[in-house]
Amino acid sequence: MKYNVIFMAAAVATRTSMAPTNSVTLAIPTKTMFDEGVPTDQPVVGDYTGALRPQIHFSPPTEFMNDPNGMFVDVNGTYHLYYQYNPTATVAGNQHWGHATSTDLYHWVNQKIAIFATEDSQIFSGSCVIDTNNTSGFFPGQDNGVVAIYTLNTATAQTQEIAWSVDGGYTFEKYEGNPVLALDPPSSQFRDPKVVRYDDHWVMVLAYAQEFAIGIFTSPDLKSWTHASNFSHHGLLGLQYECPNLVEMPVEGGDPMWVMAISINPGAPLGGSITEYFPGEFNGTHFTAIDAAARLTDFSKDNYAGQFFYGIPPTEEQIYIGWASNWEYSQAVPTGQLEGWRSSMTVPRRTHIANVTRVGINMMDMPYNIEAVLDAPLATNSSLGNGTVFVDYSSLNSGAIWFQVNVTGLPNNTATPSRQGTLNFTFSASSTRESVSGGFYFGGDNPFWMNRGDIYGFGNTDPFFTDKFSVGNPINANGTFTLDGIIDRSILEAFIDNGRSVGTMTFFPQGMLDTMVLRTNGLNDGVEVSVAVWGLKSAWAEEANDEGVVEGNVTMSSNNPTMDRRHAKLY
Ligand SMILES: *[C@@H]1O[C@H](CO)[C@@H](O)[C@H](O)[C@H]1NC(C)=O
Ligand SMILES: *[C@@H]1O[C@H](CO)[C@@H](O)[C@H](O)[C@H]1NC(C)=O
Ligand SMILES: *[C@@H]1O[C@H](CO)[C@@H](O)[C@H](O)[C@H]1NC(C)=O
Ligand SMILES: *[C@@H]1O[C@H](CO)[C@@H](O)[C@H](O)[C@H]1NC(C)=O
Ligand SMILES: *[C@@H]1O[C@H](CO)[C@@H](O)[C@H](O)[C@H]1NC(C)=O
Ligand SMILES: *[C@@H]1O[C@H](CO)[C@@H](O)[C@H](O)[C@H]1NC(C)=O
Ligand SMILES: *[C@@H]1O[C@H](CO)[C@@H](O)[C@H](O)[C@H]1NC(C)=O
Ligand SMILES: *[C@@H]1O[C@H](CO)[C@@H](O)[C@H](O)[C@H]1NC(C)=O
Ligand SMILES: *[C@@H]1O[C@H](CO)[C@@H](O)[C@H](O)[C@H]1NC(C)=O
Ligand SMILES: *[C@@H]1O[C@H](CO)[C@@H](O)[C@H](O)[C@H]1NC(C)=O
Ligand SMILES: *[C@@H]1O[C@H](CO)[C@@H](O)[C@H](O)[C@H]1NC(C)=O
Ligand SMILES: *[C@@H]1O[C@H](CO)[C@@H](O)[C@H](O)[C@H]1NC(C)=O
Question: How many CA atoms lie within 13 A of 316 on its CB side?
Fold first, then answer.
């Protein structure tokens, strides 16, 4: 967690004056533990029917969400997602840990808020681990105890605290010995602990945000922490380092490799927030990057503060989820005024390392198995060549689509005639003529581009809502190119060449997008194009009650039986 209150107030005020149609709340709320109307023992109720609400992405039931936190998967395959949550306003402030669970990473069940802000302190970002061996001593007779490690933010300091859960992560108790890590003199720029297990000890990575250092700390018991080393001044600095992650993941044709991810904000090359990562070696106390390069998770602007799930073996693809927004405009986007919520997460992404053409070592990010929400195919063509695929999906209630394009038989770059042709796609609203689009050039430097400039609902007067993004994506030596895309009402994610390059782009149309056109032209002889377009189900609609409202659940646990409140009247 990150936002600086002074910066935020200025940003909100600026946005209001520039975009008069956006009536953004100017006051930064200061709230106490028992906020009026915020339930403490049952989930916040949400309406997910809004025209801008993503249907297969996680977004909060109401109000403002930012960073994913505490992500872990338990032994039974339940994924826990906590998140920076202000349950009382559609801007940041009053930070709690919201909570949701899923077994397929697309159908999320909103749970009660897990950790609450108090009158004078907020719960900023952090992580969770499963203390299988009771190293903390919190869990007699239990091998599924959960410990949350987070930053407590007060007016004067950021310190690291822990809280423990005997019921699998649904209810937390704050440790009476908190804080477990604090600086002397106190620092207000010391945050976002991410803890992992390394052999016989725990390892925390933590940002000294404005000193551009990631501290690596070790602990036998999650309570006492020792500074082991710093990883500092690597890659893009921006103006702050935040939300570090350390994770070990598989490598195509090799042994698993460690990756250090660092989110920076403000000061990303495209403005605002972005995440960079460093593949490397970790020996339990020191991280060493393989080279001096800064690599980015995304080439566009809407993926920040991503976190990897705790509990996935390093020989399996790791899974991460990012916050699909950017601090430059996250508190101004029109979902707040129109639908009472702001920000969604990215789709879950499975990751590994590969050696890609020209660049070398690179993290590959693909959508986690989307079968759980696959509906019917809307169009397929396995021999498109130079051609067009047209899809009218106005009758698809979810408004969410997955599409895949495989191109094979591309000549190498010294062929005569030279490699050429283009592939473009456009999603448009027949009611307003708005559109989002993207495309790829098979010739030249192989740029892939995305454009949200033809959407009228938001951004045309906002200097920070950059409207076009592109990346160079060299053709593979075997002459193939692939594109996987997910569009979900107000977010588009493009995964190029098996996730070598990824773009995440939010947009806020006035009309519902309902028409897709995908077109290829000028391809070399012998190039083959195979396209499939699928409708996606609405995960949230499946969960809604008769009034169309998603109530969430209070999941019962063997260690802490609680009444099933799913059908209780909540307000
Ligand atoms: C996993 O499922 C078993 C059997 O239902 C249950 O006893 C156990 O408490 C569950 N563990 C967790 C961490 O939820
Ligand atoms: C638990 O203990 C086993 C055996 O000592 C060890 O291999 C493992 O890393 C420990 N795991 C955790 C999460 O503490
Ligand atoms: C867990 O730790 C506590 C405190 O050290 C201890 O009392 C308890 O016996 C431990 N339980 C197990 C099963 O190791
Ligand atoms: C690690 O970095 C922090 C922040 O710059 C600094 O205060 C600390 O002295 C460094 N520790 C070591 C051992 O270099
Ligand atoms: C880890 O790497 C550091 C820096 O190279 C080195 O000083 C330290 O001894 C290494 N630790 C182990 C356990 O190998
Ligand atoms: C990546 O592949 C290239 C081409 O095959 C090779 O030259 C290079 O050594 C590889 N790099 C790594 C880090 O494996
Ligand atoms: C696939 O596209 C080609 C032209 O690009 C067209 O001739 C053919 O009919 C299409 N096939 C199907 C099944 O639509
Ligand atoms: C072509 O190469 C890419 C990159 O190495 C690889 O991901 C893909 O599977 C290969 N495709 C075929 C058909 O061999
Ligand atoms: C794709 O878009 C580019 C840029 O607007 C344009 O030059 C190209 O002709 C388009 N290609 C197709 C197949 O529509
Ligand atoms: C695509 O069109 C180009 C001319 O623009 C032509 O040379 C080529 O043969 C066509 N490719 C296919 C696969 O039909
Ligand atoms: C693209 O290629 C992959 C891997 O071979 C295959 O699983 C998928 O079905 C193909 N998709 C299309 C649209 O042809
Ligand atoms: C809601 O909680 C109850 C009790 O723990 C559980 O049986 C049920 O499966 C949960 N429902 C959902 C949708 O998670």
Answer: 11
